Structures are given as C-alpha cells and as structure tokens.
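Take a record.
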Amino acid sequence: METVAPVEVLNAPALAGTAHGFLGRRGGVSDGLHAGLNVGLGSDDGRDAVLQNRRRAADAVLAGAPLVTVHQIHSPDVVTVSEPWGDDARPRADALVTRQRSVLLGILTADCAPVLLADREAGVIGAAHAGWRGALGGVTDATVTAMVALGASVANIAAVVGPCIAQASYEVDAAFEANFVAADTYNAQFFKLGRAGHAWFDLEGYVATRLTAAGVGKVERLGEDTYSQADRFFSFRRATHAGEPDYGRQIALIGLE
C-alpha cells in the first residue's frame, strides 16, 4: 500500500495559541488532476477521496473536531455557527464566525484569499473567503462586524491572509481595474501597470489593507503564491491556463479548543 504523505499545515504567528492552519495540496489521497489534499465537494474528484481529505485536513489542525464549511458564492455574506451542520446542509455564504468550542471553521480556496481571524481574549473566531468580488463587496468587514456581535473587540482581533494568487501571477484587464477604482480611487495602488489594457492586481495587499482599515488590531500576510507553486497549492487560474477541465481546492481552518 502506498504511504500518504503528511498533511502540510502552515501556521501564522499572529494566531499563535489558537488552533489553525492554512493547508495546501500535500498530504491527501486524491490523484490525477486533483492529486493531493483536494477538499472540494464541488470538484469532479471522487466523493470518497474528498471526504477522506476533509477528515485528514481537520485532524491535522484539531483532531476529532467537526468541520463546518459553507457553499461559497463570492458574496459578503457571513453565517454564525451555533452548532455543526453536515456537508450537504451547507448554507450559501462566504464567511463563518463562532464562539463555540471544538468546532473547526473551514474556507476553501484555489487562488482566492483565505482569511482566518481570532480574538483570543473574547473567544471568538472567524474565517472568510475573499475572492476579488467578495473582497470588494466587503466580506472581511462583514466578518469583523459579525465577530463583534459575538463579543469580540475589533482592536483585539488578529487576522491572517493565507496563500492566494500573488500580484506577479494575477493579470487583469482594464475593466477589472476600473471597477475597483470606481469604488475608491485609493484602490489604484493595488494595480501595477502591465501590457496594453492590462494590469497586475495585488489581491493579498487589498484584503490586508481592508482589514487594517476596519480597525483590526493585527494583520499578517503569509505571502504564498498559489499560482506559481504547483507542487504545494491548487490554482484555478493555473488549471485554466493549462486547459485542464477541473481543479482541486485547498482549505484554511480555525477552531477553539
């Protein structure tokens, strides 16, 4: 029997003392296009493999804890978790918050930015999926607001932006840039001039800056590019450029012990 590699878990100093991890593709049982730790129920991967991977991922961060995720729709919508729900009962949203212990909040990504948040003093955590649309729509602001409603203090929240597509890998067209600048001229700083009619977008920087602007006390960036590290991370854009028919998803997890 082939031995499965250990799950790779990236931790962030800002979240020290809180069970958390940003996971990539290493340490899973899937093969082919989805080789590794693919946790995407919406992918074309076999369901049994995906469920095994989801359990392996959860156990690598908080062994035995139920994993709670959402059906992500690139929105600013946040749900509050009072008790776990099953994989087939996932609400449509892009962020979760809770003060419940022994529950793992999970966010899936494949280039979008995963954001994990915690106010350790208040015992409140959050997880957000920040693609460009959700980020611009305010998903991180909404997550912070939902955490405050559970008793968190904005100044005490630590937030980490995990592996996502880096600016050097994220070329966008002029209409994309105009959408951000129309929302706020300050956003022009997140675009670097590229070939005619195009620019390079700093998603990680934009998300981190939104968190800081919301008053979050500590904001950290992992600085890991999903697109350029095919051996470590899944990437929607890389799969698209390669003409592949599907792609895997990785997960970011946070829980209160």
About this structure: The mean pLDDT is 97.
